[in-house]
Amino acid sequence: MSSIYIGTFDNSMINYEKAFFWSKQAADTGLAIGKTYLASCYINGWGCKTDTDMAIKLLKEAAALGEKFAIEYLNNSGIKF
C-alpha cells in the first residue's frame, strides 16, 4: 500500500504522510518490504524527519529477513549487516 503513495505506480498519488503511515504499519507487523519502505521514508524525510540510524536499523532487519532491495542497498552503501 505504501508504494502507491511513494509514487511507484502513479505520481498523482504521491502522499508522503500516507506512505510513512502505511510503511510503519507494515513494518510493525514484521513485513520485510514494509521495513524497506519505512527505511526509504526515513532516508528521504518522506512524512517524517530524516533519521539515518533508524533507516539503517530497518534495512538490516529487512535484509536479515531476505529482502533483496535492503540487501542490495546495504551492500552498495558498504554497510555490514
Descriptors:
81 residues; mainly alpha; 5 helices; 67% helix; 0% strand; globular
Radius of gyration: 12 Å
Secondary structure category: mainly alpha
Shape: globular
What's the SSE pattern? HHHHH
Domain module tally: 1
Low-confidence stretches: none
Helical content stands at 55-70%
How would you state the average pLDDT, rounded? 89
* Largest beta-sheet details: none
Tell me what portion of residues adopts beta-strand conformation: under 5%
- Span from first to last CA? 27 Å
**Helical stretch count?**
5
Instruction: Give the tally of β-strands.
Output: 0
Can you walk through the features of this model?
The protein is mostly helical. The chain is 67% helix and 0% strand. The chain has one domain. α2 runs antiparallel to α3. The chain is globular and about 35 Å long. It starts with a helix and ends with a helix.
Topology:
Layout: H1 2-6, H2 16-28, H3 32-44, H4 52-64, H5 68-77
Describe the structure concisely for a colleague.
The protein is mainly alpha-helical. The protein contains five helices and no strands.
